[in-house]
Amino acid sequence: MKKALILSTALVALAMAGPATAADDDDLWPTFRGVDQHRVDSWIRRGATAKDIDDVMDRIAASSPPYRYERMIDTQIAYGPGHWVYEWSAQADRALSQAEVLREAEETERARDMFLRAAQLYSLAKAVYIRDEDWPYYQAAYVKAMEAYEAFGALLDTPLEVIDVPYRGEIIRAYLHLPKAAGSGPIPLVIGAGGIDVFKPETWPVAKRVMDAGMAYVVLDMPGMGESNDFRNMPDHETAFLAVHDAIAKDDRFDQDRIAVYATSWSGNAVARLAVLHGDRFAALVSACGPVHEPFDMPTEAIRADPGILDRSATAHRLDVLADRFGIGVPRDDAANVRLAELLPAFSLVNQDLLSGDIIEDAPPLLVINSRNDPVLPIQDMTLIASAVRNGTVIFTGDGGHCGNLAQIHDYAVEFIADHVHAYGS
C-alpha cells in the first residue's frame, strides 16, 4: 500500500492551517486520522505489530466510497470490509482469541503480550471516538480495549488495580499500576493522562517506565475523553487530576509528599494550570507538548461574522474531535463553529490572567518538553509556562511532529520525576 504522509493529529493551531504537503504528492494518502510514520511508530511501541498495521491499512486502502470526508480512505461510511472500526476490530478479535487460548494453556507471558496487543488494536479501532454515525462502533471497540487491557493487567507480576475516582457527582475509572517493591513502604506515585485521542489502555509505555523507576502510576481518561466522554472538557480540566489526588490521599501505600503528574498534549494544558494554581500539592509536574496560549488564539470575531471559515479550512474535519470533547456535538453547524471559536481562547492561561509576569514561587519543579519543530505548538508556548515558575525546565528534542519522539520524551519525563521524588528504581 502507499504510505500515509500527512500532518499529525492537530489540536487547535491546525484549525486554520493549510493542507498537508509531501515531497511527492503521488505518495500521499489523505486520512482523517493522520496515519503517518510518526503515528505508526507510536502504535508499535504500545503493542501493535508492524504486520498488524500493514494488513489492516491494506484492507482500509481498498475501501469504497461514499466517504464521510471526501478522498479520505479511512472514512468509508458503510460498516463492513474497508471500514476503519470494522477492520481494526477484526484484527483485534483474532489477537484476543489467541490470548484467551494462551491463558487457558497457562502460557502466562505470551498470553499477557497478546492481551496487550489486542488492547492496542481495539484502541486503534475506537479512533477517533466522536459521537457521529460510528459512535456505537467506537464505544464497542473501546469497551473491548479496556477489557483486553484489564486482562493483560491481571497477568502482570503486580496485578493492575481499577480504582473509582469521585468526580462531579459521578465516577471516573482509573488504572493503577504498582511496582514490584510496592510493599516496602509508602512509595511515590505519578498521575498520568494522554492527549485528546490517547486513552488509558494506550499508556503502557509510560506505566512501565514509571514502575521500573520504583513509582506507582495511576492513569485516567480526562473529561471529554475515552471512558470520561460524558463529562465535558472545560478549561478547569485540571480538577480531574485533583480528584485523583484526593482519592489516593486515603491510601497509605503512597507517600503524599511525593505525588507527581505527567501528562501529554492536550492534557498538558491542565498540568500548566496545576503549576500555577495548585503547585503546593505536588512534588513535580511534567507537561509534554501541552498547549498554553498561542494555539488557542482564534479569530473569534471573524468566525462570528462568517462561521463557515472553519469548514473551509483544509483540516476542518479535525475540529470535529475538539467539538466532541467539548460537548458541542457533531456534525458542526454555524452555531457550533461560533461556540468552538468562543471556547478555545478560554483554555489560554494568558486569557485566564494566570500568567501576570510575576514568578510563581510555590510551584513545584516543572518540566516542559517537546520537539523543537512541533507544527502545533510554537517554542514560545513552551517557554512561557516554564519561565513563569520558580523552578521550570525546558527540553526540546530534535524530532519534528507533534510531541516528536515520545519514547525519548517519556524517558526524560520519568527521569525528571524520579529525581525530584527520590525514587529508588527497580
Structure description:
The longest helix has 21 residues, at 84-104. This protein folds into two domains: 31-147, acylaminoacyl peptidase (de novo design (two linked rop proteins), Up-down Bundle), CATH 1.20.1440; 159-297 and 348-421, Alpha/Beta hydrolase fold, catalytic domain (Rossmann fold, 3-Layer(aba) Sandwich), CATH 3.40.50. By secondary structure, the chain is α/β, with parallel strands linked by helices. It has helices spanning 37-46, 50-61, 84-104, 108-126, 135-154, 204-212, 239-248, 266-277, 300-305, 319-325, 334-343, 379-386, 406-421, and strands at residues 161-167, 170-177, 187-193, 216-220, 254-264, 284-288, 366-373, 392-400. Helix 2 (50-61) packs antiparallel against helix 3 (84-104), helix 3 (84-104) packs antiparallel against helix 4 (108-126) and helix 6 (204-212) packs parallel to helix 13.
